[in-house]
Amino acid sequence: MTWAAISTWRMSFDGLSEASVLLDKGINAGDAVEKLISIVENNEHYKSVGFGGLPNEEGIVQMDAGFMDGDTFAQGSVASIENVKNAISVARKLSENKTNSFLVGDGATKFAAKNGFEMTNMLTEKAKKEWQGRLSANHQEQLRAYDGHDTVGAVTLDQQGSMAAATSTSGLFMKKDGRIGDSPLSGSGFYADSQVGAAAATGLGEDIMKGCLSYEIVRKMAEGQSPQDACDQALFSFAKTLKDRYGSCDAISLIALNSKGEWGVATNVEFAFCVSDNEHEAKIMIAQQAAKDRTKIFPMTEKWLADYQKRTESTID
Ligand code: SD4
């Protein structure tokens, strides 16, 4: 029976590998995607997701996460949640609610504490130092999706044909208190329909949400497009429109999987992602924008990995 998984960025490799083992044993898509994302959240070396994530301009780690069940369309989200170890698990729990399934700020944090989710200070010493460094440098730049440290988004297909999509992020470093990106927004950061396919996004949330890009990909797949064509067309046609009418389009990367387990990726930057299925082991691939509004995809090289490691160890400036 077919199963498959795809996830954003190099940092999701361990999570995707673990989810792959579980999917092979018959775990359901929702459990697999939650496991995948929580492994990334728990790794303190990843500066933009969960524990160890970089804080907002007030030095507070505020996280966004979303979960969607592709069988029922049930979805749950949290935004600007604080001090909770696994925001994705709170989002998934909220997806069981008919109402009150998207909570923000204090309400989200209180819900997590009351419902027994592990609460902890998410600001590590390392992240605090980077924040202090940035404060003293007194940078007043535009928010940007800084190099190599991004949202984890993932899509899974299980052996029963069910699909799920999920995201988790601490958002952009030095964001304003209460700023929320695309990641917890259904249709923008993620979307899943088990009868068609599912998608997730990473990049500058303010631009991704202008095009509801995850929903747009699923809609295109429902019209019969392959995941690759759906991703390329959703990204490049929207990026062009946005440049024409808004004046700019920042970094955006998109992943998708259809109900047959075929996948696609589109990006307007250099983008690493991880993918596996019942016939292929988990692997890291690299995507880049190519000519004619297409995305070029190739396997990760040793040189790319060495450069990546250098980048993740360096501070963000
Ligand atoms: C956000 N999309 O908060 C997220 C962050 C991200 O590349 O993916 N950065 O806007």
TrEMBL record:
The keyword Coiled coil does not apply. The record marks 150-151 as: Cleavage. The keyword Hydrolase applies. Keywords: Autocatalytic cleavage, Hydrolase, Protease. GO terms for cellular component: cytoplasm. One of its GO terms (molecular function) is hydrolase activity, acting on carbon-nitrogen (but not peptide) bonds, in linear amides. It comes from the Bacteria. Substrate binds at residues 179-182, 202-205. GO terms for biological process: proteolysis. The active site is at 151 (nucleophile). Gene3D superfamilies: (Glycosyl)asparaginase. This is Asparaginase. It comes from Lactobacillus apis.
